[in-house]
Design a protein that fits this description.
Blueprint: H1 4-10, E1 17-20, E2 24-28, E3 36-42, H2 57-73, E4 80-82, E5 98-102
Bound molecules: adenosine monophosphate (AMP).
Length: 111
């Protein structure tokens, strides 16, 4: 399997790494859409959220808690955490990832 985010997770693809532990990796988005724009991924290759299973419950919780930890670390008061599930929703990389964005006003509903 040729997955760019698996490459980032295993270090074979260069990235601006922000955080890593045994299960979760966070790095700067290459094409930031906000002053702070990080991507959080599980090391495990899950293509998108609707491919996750009950066995991934703890892992998904860990990703969310890393988002909280990074928001605290970067002193983000308001932030948006979003995942695009499927091409129609804007997903372009088939490895589950959460965008953690902050530093500008966000519209709702999202475009
Ligand atoms: P999505 O469109 O929701 O699948 O988001 C994929 C995100 O990955 C986009 O915001 C891209 O800018 C970002 N991206 C793609 N390749 C890389 C990379 N090698 N390093 C960092 N970010 C990337």
């Amino acid at each position: 399997m040729n997955c760019i985010f698996c490459g980032i997770a295993d270090g074979s693809v260069k990235s601006q790494l922000i955080y890593e532990d045994e299960d979760v990796v966070a790095f700067k988005d290459l094409n930031p859409q906000a002053p702070t724009h990080l991507l959080l991924i599980p090391r495990k290759h899950i293509a998108r959220l609707d491919q996750a299973s009950e066995d991934d419950a703890l892992l998904l919780g860990k990703v969310l808690l890393v988002a909280k930890k990074l928001a605290q670390q970067f002193d983000l008061k308001d932030f948006r955490l979003v995942t695009n599930n499927g091409k129609g929703a804007g997903q372009s990389v088939d490895h589950l990832h959460f965008h953690l964005m902050a530093g500008r006003r966000f519209l709702w509903p999202a475009g």
